[in-house]
Amino acid sequence: MGKRTIIGAALLVMVGVVFGALLVMSFDGVGETFGYTGMEVKLGGPAPIRSSNMGMNMLSLQNAFIEISKAVTPAVVSVTVISTPKNRMPDLPFFHDFQFNIPNPQPEKGMGSGVIVTSDGYIVTNNHVVEDAEKNGIKVKLYDKREFQAQLVGRDPTTDVAVIKISASGLPVASIGNSDSIEVGQWVLAIGNPLGLTSTVTAGIVSALGRDIDVSADRWGIRNFIQTDAAINPGNSGGALVDIRGQVIGINSMIATRTGYNEGYGFAIPINLVKKVAEDLIAYGKVRRPMLGVQLKSTIDETDARALGLPKPEGVLVQDVVAGSPAESAGVKAGDVILTINGKEVDAANEIQTLIAEMQPGDVVTLGIFRGGETISKKVTLAEVSSRDLASGAGNAQPETAQPDKSGRTDIAKLGIAVMPLDQKTMREAGTDHGILVASVTPGGPAAERTLLKNDIITAIDHEKVNSPADLVNALKDKQNGDAIMLRVLSKQGTSYISRFVAVQIGG
Question: Annotated catalytic residue: which of 78, 156, 160, 325?
Fold first, then answer.
């Protein structure tokens, strides 16, 4: 590099330094500025949209959110619970030869939310928020910062609903909506106290309805949730899910997550069910649970529909009818397909479960039933579930072998199973006087795909009794690949058997 080049570069650097110093120099009488002072500078963009329909709609929505938040937030409380944890074994991946117990468990503090439903202090929350509370261990903090000791009125693990009470009057009360009228896609707000952040409002939509999520081992457990993407986190439990009219349509209960925090999948208990349970807890201290008296198949698919003669997959299949139940008295039969309840179409077992749970013992319901190719109606007077009821928890193609082998086994290749005659001892245990035993099920075969299991007992095919393997072979001889049949099956659960229907497509 030449001398002239070096000198030129040095001069340029000096000029740059001087120019930079001038830019940052503070002059007397001149405040901070963002640019050349000879030009008028204003922060922000263009004027607000005033005439655009989209702008007005967004402003209307924003104003609605504001008004809803103002109206409902005062009726949502913070619930603090002091509980003593049960002794438990830590889940340690190593040192399995040792046992560790937690000595003298210390009280723990948990937080949730609640919704005021009467002006004199009745508050709805989740059962899981208060179930382990110590005596006098429930405290409520209102929106206006007042704090109260709360008493437990009652709780129902089956629906995850609980009611607590504080001694106060003139409290703000949430407006209760109708969860049967909500639709997927409508706006909702979740209001509660997540992560200790009191009076938090988040917005989203109804993502799905009728989510069948098993959160209870209770056979009477209600599994019909509203799904939303409004942000819900620990502490939101028991808070309000509110529609665009400011009415509570659900009580937030849980989230689906891999992290323990919101991932956009929150679930709320429909308010119609919450209302019925809360009213029972307040009036009776327990839930008066109505019973229809049927065992149901969760959904009907295309194979089921063909086997049943339905024009399309719809309704809910009655697997069995409880002896002495209201359904039996009304003439409901196993194999019926319930299409409607009081005129409302149903397509899943949990829909029927929820609709019945919202009613009272003694109510009369009208069932629209598909039977034998026609639609009929049955009126059923609901009974109350007794304590006894609550406790009871009630392929390579191979030719069929018309004659059994030496062991008595008959292969049914069309179904992918082998069957055997039923011995008297098994008949007595299963409570049946006919049927055949499923000796094996071919993995990946037609029967396996429809959850037929080894040691199941087939008692009927297409509503005709089966007394021997030959009966099953004869019933299948005119069936072609693609045809569907309906099997009546007894499946062992624990020490007892349950009856169910299994639709199987011939040839898979």
Answer: 160
Tokens 């992918």 found at: 416
The residues facing 502 across adjacent strands are 487
Query: Quick check: is 456 catalytic?
Result: no
- Lowest mean per-residue pLDDT among 113-122, 286-295, 402-411, 414-423: 402-411
- The rounded percent of the chain whose pLDDT value lies above 90 is 41
Give yes or no for residue 389 having a pLDDT over 80.
Answer: no
Active-site residue flag, 128: yes
Q: pLDDT tens, 307-329?
A: 899 999 999 999 888 888 899 99
**Maximum Cα–Cα distance across the chain:** 114
468 is catalytic: no
Instruction: Enumerate the β-bridge partners of residue 269.
Output: 251
Write down the catalytic residue from 78, 113, 179, 237. Answer: 237
Select from 376, 365, 308 the least CA-distant residue to 339: 376
Task: State CA 186 to chain mean position distance.
Answer: 18
CA–CA gap between residue 356 and residue 155 (Å, rounded): 19
Catalytic residue, from 113, 128, 156, 179: name it.
128
In terms of pTM, does the model score above 0.90?
no
C-alpha 9/C-alpha 29 separation (Å) is: 36
Q: Around 138, how many Cα atoms within 13 Å sit in the side-chain half-sphere?
A: 26
Domain ranges of the chain: 179-284, 290-390, 410-505
Nearest-10 crossing angle of helices 271-284, 349-357: 40
The CATH label, of 2.60.120.560, 3.40.190.10, 2.30.42.10, 3.40.630.30, for the domain at 290-390 is: 2.30.42.10
